[in-house]
Design goal:
Mean pLDDT: 96
Low-confidence stretches: none
CATH topology of the largest domain: Alpha/beta knot
Strand content: 15-25%
Oligomer: single chain
Order of helices and strands: EHHEHEHHEHEEHEHEHEEHEH
Radius of gyration: 20 Å
Distance between the termini: 47 Å
Number of helices: 11
Number of strands: 11
Amino acid sequence: MFTRIKSKNNQYLKLARRLADSRKQRQKSGLFVFEGIRLVEEAFASKLPIEFVFMSEDFTDTEKGKQLMDNVVSYGTAGYILDNDVFRSLAQTENPQGIMTVAEQPQWGSGDTLFENPEAFILVVDEVQDPGNLGTIIRSAHGAGVDGVYLTLGTVDIYNNKAVRASMGSIFHTPFFTGWSTKDLLEKLIRGKFKVLVADVAAQTLYYEEDFAGSLAVVVGNENKGPSEDFKRNGHTVRIPCNAESLNVSAAAAVLLYERVRLGL
């Protein structure tokens, strides 16, 4: 069922704005907001619990809009139609597609069980700051079949609008675990006998000279300072040959993750 909203001061619009603007609000409520046709379709496909959906008046007149309206109704989710100017005032993109959703954050558990898997393939994202990089990394992890992504303390919020958009919906399909300290994560990896491959521009070993078999953790670090010293001391540092000073962290993650795919492991 769809209800029309005309006022910019509606309580649901206010909630969406707070979620878009405040990491603290997202953490407190367990909700997040995202927009765009692809993301909404991926959310439906993943059975993500959705609180409500906004659509602009113009979008509801399109074929895709009508199709998604039917999906919202069959999903049992509340839908709201907004005047076009009201929707534009809410949108986080320059050219909004006319659909936005407030949903519950995916629940993947603690991530502890993966450390007991002798064939687990995981990715550690260590203090990456750019939300676009993080979202792209999640997308690469999804494509490469990573079992779980672990985000250390200091990493940008995965529910940041730009991170969610850059993931292209992979955030709904790839298990991720936030708030890990480097110390706790390393203890789990060492106890689980993981091989830890750390992307480091100063490493002597080229990445394709390492063994990617068995339980494997790939670590990529902060855009400016790289991975933490603790990871470098306790892991195998590897370098990706590059004519530039270094690769973007999301590109480096893709190269390392897809090496395991290339090897058929």
